[in-house]
Amino acid sequence: MITKYFLKIVVSSLLVTLWGGLILLSGCKEPPPPPPPEKIEKTTPPPATAEAEENQGEAEQEKPPEYQYDPSGRREPFKTLIVEEIPEVPEVLVTPDPATVKTPLQKFDVKQLKITGIILGGLGEYARVAAPDGKSYTLLVGTLVGTHDGEVISITDNVVIVKEIYRYESGKVEEVETPLYLKPIEEEEKS
Hints:
With 191 residues, the chain is of the alpha+beta class. It contains three helices and seven strands; from the N terminus they run ααβββββββα. The protein is elongated, with a radius of gyration of 53 Å.
């Protein structure tokens, strides 16, 4: 019984080996040669006629217009969507500290002062000014005037120029020159 069984195994393994060898050998053939290239006939185009040229001109005119991109109404694609808005700080003047007021003329704004007279001579340049409190004061070049660290920088025959320094809460500092006229400009034009 062992021999029959053994014989079946040997025969079946031999058959499997033969079939495998046949399959392997059948796949090792050379590939078939490529087909010969097809012959292409060369033809010459027929001569162009007047009608063909007109049709060609019409075809060129019938081309659709070229497309042009119009970005109006669309957002910028490369701009970030997250926008940090920095709130604008309003330009607010810093009020001067009342403890730093040194002279009576520093209690009033420069535009509230009215020039009543100007003296030019060998002894120097002087200007007389009337304050809103009804008192009269004398100005020289270098006199401190106004609520914003103003200083008289020049006195001429008709004008006194005061330079003030405006300080804003945002940190901005601005120098402003304010002219005070002996005769206002409207009165000068009338006379």
